[in-house]
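[Solved] Which block belongs to which protein?

Original post:
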Amino acid sequence: MRINRLRWRLTLLYCAASIASGVVLLLIIVVLSRSLPPADAPAPQGVPVGPGRGRLPVAVPVELESYRSNILVLPGIALAIMAVLSLAVGWVIAGRMLRPVRTMTERLQQISGRNVHERLAVAGPRDELKDLADTVDGLLGRLETALDGHKRFVANAAHELRTPLTVEHALLEEPLIDPDATVEAYRANFERLIAVNRERSRLLESLLTLAGSEHGRGRAEPVDLAGLAEQAVRDRAAEFDRHGLRVKTMIRPARLLGDPALIGRLVANLCDNAVHHNTPGGVVEVATRLAAGQALLVVTNTGPVVPPEDVDRLFEPFQRMRRVADDTHHGLGLSIVRAIAVAHGAVLTAHAHTEGGLTVQISFPAVS
């Protein structure tokens, strides 16, 4: 158990201040008591001087009343003086202890989006203030990572959107600058424009899906993961045949709580990735099952060798292992998969095979 150093420090300081206050109070009383009559002074008139000499008279002499008044007044004066001194000492101690907090506040007020890389970097022994500063530094680090990722995403999205716009402009301009353009040329350009527009629509749809997935899931209801996997395999049967791929399925009942549309998109994206990044005559394996209270989805494919250090990068937006001229994919499929998994509290793991290909496993909290 970690010692609360700051709490002990404050306790000892306040204790020391109280003891010092008591000592000062005693000193003040001693100094003020010198003005009182000495102990061997004769008793005031009318006061018995020894035991057994009768009671005090009903009429108390003025000298005795003044004597008692002095005894009650002097501690009150000392207490008032000590109250003022305690306020001053407490003010100094509190300011000294809160100085690191003021320093951190001032430095945090100077941090903005332009210098989010700066840190508090508070030195000193490990205490509550040091833990707070380290926690804030960790938060700033995560914020810096998120901002950098956002900037890269915006830059990549702008680049991906600029390309079809440039192509569309060229296709529209080509027949206008050709005086001999025929109807067939216009028709061909329009067909190409439709293809470019369709590709841009897919990109925008993917961007919207990614943004919605990162924001969080929608409605939560029981989802049949096995049924979604079977449907994804059936929908891609023609594509499997066209690429000469063999499909192996081991689909067992598995249910989870989530957004059916997003989970369906996750399964579809994993299957599409297994098809498009495969080799002719390769294999695609799709499996679902329950294990240790988790609904598991596992998709494996053969394909080119993926360096292990590049596996995590594939789940970032607009990241692809290879770019080809006629590639209509934008590198958003796996990033959408990761965003949907995070939104559903799932754990995503992926590892590359030495002989080529990739295995992706997603563990969702299962429901009965």
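(Second protein starts here: sequence line, then its structure tokens.)
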Amino acid sequence: METLEFIIYPDGRVQEKVTGIVGASCAEVTAAIEAQLGQVVSQEQTSEYFTQPINQLLDASNQITFSEW
């Protein structure tokens, strides 16, 4: 399940946490929201960011070939 969580602090800062989205596509999902919120001060990628979607792993394994001696 894809989840966007926002914590709004009394000083106006907003902390955004994205879960359930694999790979860098989370940046696409949050780009419009971040543009409306204002300046992004920092970003921290989670382990889900560095996880490859399953279909890419399958494509890579299908491309492996063995040389014939």
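Accepted answer:
You had them paired correctly. Confirming on the second one: The first strand starts at residue 3 and ends at 8.
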